[in-house]
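Table S2 (continued). Query chain:
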Amino acid sequence: MTKKLFFNIFKRHPKDPKVKNIPAVPTFQQNLEACHFVDAGKQLITREDRLFELKKDGIGSKIKLVEEEEDSEARLAKDYEDWLELVMQRLENSLDTQSPEEQELLKEAVQAMLQEEEQDKRWEGFQEAQRPQWRPRKCKQKHEALLERLVQRRMDEAPLDSSVEMHSSLAIICKAKQLEEDLMKVVTWVSSCYPEQENVCQFYATLYHKIFSAELREVAEYTLCDKDCVLLLQLVNEDYPNILNAKKIKNMIDHTKLAPLLPEDMIAPLEQQFLTTFETEVSTCLHKILDREETAWKEGEHPQLRDQVYCCDQAIDVIQCFHKNVECAQKVLGNEAKAQRITCQMRNFLTDYKAFHAKVIKSRQTNTEAVLMVNLSCLIQCRDYITKKAHLFPEDVKTDCLSLLATMIESSHRHFNSNMLLELKDLFRKVGSSEWLKNSDGVCEELLAKLDGHIQKFNNLDKTCCQELLSGMHKEFLAEYVRKMMKQKIKLLNKEQQQMAASSLCINSEHMHKYFTDAGSNMDWLKDILPNLAGLLKLQDPDSIKLELVTLMQLYPDLSERHISAWLRLKGNLSPSDLKRILKSVTCSQDQFSETQDSLQFSKSFFSIVRIR
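Corresponding output:
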């Protein structure tokens, strides 16, 4: 570099002696005492430039000037040290900044530090002998090292929280708290003191992350008790991400640039320990509930009533125990898929519940029916929970759980329906008999009156459970009614008898449907079954009967040839040859329907439970 170019780089404009009345410029010492770090730094740079210019002009050949120059360099070096000490002190107190005045001081120190960095760049390219001994000063590098020491000290000295029970690794919580508080200070007070391009928030976050990660790794190297294991995983997967995702911090820090707090080879054993412990806890909790219910049943206890409804405490306990632990596992592991392993305990529990349920059904204790009713409520609530929270379960576990619950619910319904049919057995014998033909209204009223006395006990069930039970009972009651009609205890020999029977069927259907829907059944579609069957009795023309059957087979896909044959045999005036032709056409139609049948129609399955010989 030429002398001329070198001179121009550092040239300063001299003061104009003609300008008067200019206020006295503060001295370097005055600027330093006032913490005007930038102005003081500029003064030092100006002095540095002058010394540099003297050297390059070659004036220092005279001994006197050399002595003066050496004396000035010594003073300048001392002033630089004094200035730098105060600047670094201010930078070191960055995290104590809590007022606008302190912010201004920090901003001064940061600008002064960056100003020195620019001066270092001006000296780049010069030989060591050509530049002052203090160049490069590397203020920015010193600043970064200082902040690293600051962060390390604050983490080491994190105050212990007296409200927290102390044990082997719990001190790490206090460090996490210190980290959170300090990052909040950085984004609230410190960040505005730095130019945006310095990205000071990210720098601080990286320092804290590195030190916190080292602390966690040190703890994770030891064999931890279950409590500490949970604590460590919770810090890594929940608490720490929550800190970084806090509203103020999230917008200032890119946490995707931070390495994992713990490496996979340290996380995996902790997760395994946690899952094993939690599986045991969930299993123990669920089976305590089951043991409690089985003991109460064996001792003959009746479920409690609350507001005239059976309390289903076991459903609440089961769902709360399970959901609380799965939700906790998701947070601790930070991964829904990993937490799904715990859900296998629900399948194991329901398998054991099924065995208990079967014992209750087979028993003849006085509290059996009441226990089955409250258990039915529990099963339905568990089913609804699993259906609603399906995302918590692996597909195979969810399917198995719902299958176990469906089996138990079905067996409960079957038990109550069997008891109902057994109690109404004698009255059902009248359906489809000559007595029914003479007084169908009377037979229907007797049935419903007897049924009413039977289902009063279900008033103590909760609404959802009762509706489901009565809906199934509605279907079973009607199926038994149709089955008795198909036993052909009577023959409707002429059109008049057939129309009278058809009218009776429609009236009976209306009464039965009103009774069940008023009681709580939601099987509204059942109201059309008897009127549709009655329509077949009214028809006299075989071709018309064929067309009507095609419509019925579309409505009820499980209406079989055997059902049709049994029903049409009530028509005493239908010749065997006509019946044969009708059944033949039915077979052809069923073959066509089987290829195009809408699967939704199978939800209206009815005739499959009308069992005829």
